[in-house]
TrEMBL record:
This is Helix-turn-helix transcriptional regulator. SMART domains: HTH_XRE. One of its GO terms (molecular function) is DNA-binding transcription factor activity. Residues 39-93 form the HTH cro/C1-type domain. PROSITE patterns: HTH_CROC1 (PS50943). InterPro entries: Cro/C1-type_HTH (IPR001387), Lambda_DNA-bd_dom_sf (IPR010982), TransReg_Diox_bact_type (IPR050807). PANTHER family: HTH-TYPE TRANSCRIPTIONAL REGULATOR, METHYLPHOSPHONATE SYNTHASE.
Length: 131
């Protein structure tokens, strides 16, 4: 989420119409890699091979490989099909647009936990006049 602008476009695109933080957020390549990590983590958690996930979604194993590596970004419809096959919500496969710094090498669930702690600390600091 952006800090200064509360509208949907700003928070989703990481852009600020007023110039508070133009271009903030992650780049497209990092975002696609984040989707890939989340798809892979969810697939492994439910014990599916790439081939089995491909069959369940009507995609090729090569497409699953490309998605998991971040080389290919699935369109929304395919992402929804992948999520359904993995028994997760499509949003669970989308990374944050906020840069995660060194947490990018962590599994998605741990990176989310770190991001939650950082967000809570920032909120507490702002409340205490330190933000």
């Amino acid at each position: 989420m952006t800090r200064h602008c509360g509208d949907y476009r700003s928070s989703v695109l990481g852009l600020c119409q007023r110039g508070c933080h133009p271009g903030s957020g992650v780049d497209e390549k990092a975002f696609n890699a984040g989707i890939g990590r989340r798809v892979r983590d969810a697939r492994l958690q439910v014990g599916l091979t790439q081939e089995h996930l491909a069959r369940k979604t009507g995609l090729t194993r090569g497409s699953i490989t490309n998605i998991e590596s971040g080389a290919q970004a699935p369109p929304p419809y395919r992402l929804a099909r992948i999520a359904a096959a993995l028994s997760v919500e499509p949003a669970d496969l989308l990374p944050s647009l906020e840069p995660q710094g060194h947490t990018s090498d962590l599994p998605a669930d741990l990176a989310d936990a770190v991001a939650s702690v950082v967000s809570a600390a920032e909120t507490m600091g702002a409340r205490d006049g330190q933000g």
